[in-house]
Write a structure and sequence with these properties.
Number of domains: 1
Helix content: 40-55%
Number of helices: 7
Number of strands: 6
Shape: globular
Distance between the termini: 52 Å
Structural class: alpha+beta
Largest sheet: 4 strands, mixed
Radius of gyration: 16 Å
Strand order of the largest sheet: 1-2-6-3
Length: 185
């Protein structure tokens, strides 16, 4: 793939961040869909990598696994966004299965991954939060993610989320309890 094509793909993802995920929305208590994205983007804390995603990328030594290891070791970035250039490489269900298997492999590094797909049905009150322009993975430190979740739990961010929404994003810890308490108030 040419460098121009890679740059174009990354630019489309950044435009999506700016025009969709970083915009305040009433469903999220007036906060952006992704409240920490803009700061991370402006501070160059997001590392973007274009990799054709397929099940073989789960194997040790693959381009994806090497990118994750480099991200983990560098400590220069807080987020790794892996973008697959092929819109049809994986179905929504395959992305979900891919993420589950990847999380099993990267958990020892205290990292976690989330998937996005142009047709992902996940939504909060009708706001689709994962329908990015490309199939992608967002990889972050569990420590940073947990701190961010706990910070958001003290706001009105989750006020419109259902218990099923919370389960779908993996809230099985103290943050979920705090959020569910807040929703009950």
């Amino acid at each position: 793939m040419s460098l121009d094509r890679e740059a174009s793909i990354i630019e489309k993802m950044i435009q999506y961040l700016e025009t969709v995920l970083e915009q305040p929305h009433p469903v999220f208590g007036g906060l952006p869909i992704c409240p920490f994205s803009k700061k991370a983007r402006l501070q160059n804390k997001i590392f973007y990598k274009v990799i054709a995603l397929a099940m073989d990328q789960l194997q040790a030594g693959s381009e994806l696994r090497q990118a994750i290891a480099s991200f983990h070791e560098s400590k220069q970035h807080d987020v790794l966004v892996v973008i697959s250039p092929d819109h049809d490489a994986l179905t929504v269900e395959q992305v979900q299965a891919f993420v589950e298997q990847l999380n099993d492999r990267i958990a020892p590094m205290r990292l976690t991954a989330f998937g996005g797909h142009p047709q992902d049905p996940f939504n909060v009150q009708g706001v689709f939060t994962r329908q990015e322009p490309f199939i992608n993975l967002t990889i972050q430190s569990m420590t940073i993610l947990q701190a961010a979740s706990e910070q958001l739990a003290r706001t009105s961010y989750y006020q419109h989320w259902s218990a099923e929404n919370l389960r779908q994003v993996g809230f099985h810890n103290r943050s979920a309890v705090a959020i569910e308490r807040q929703m009950g108030d």
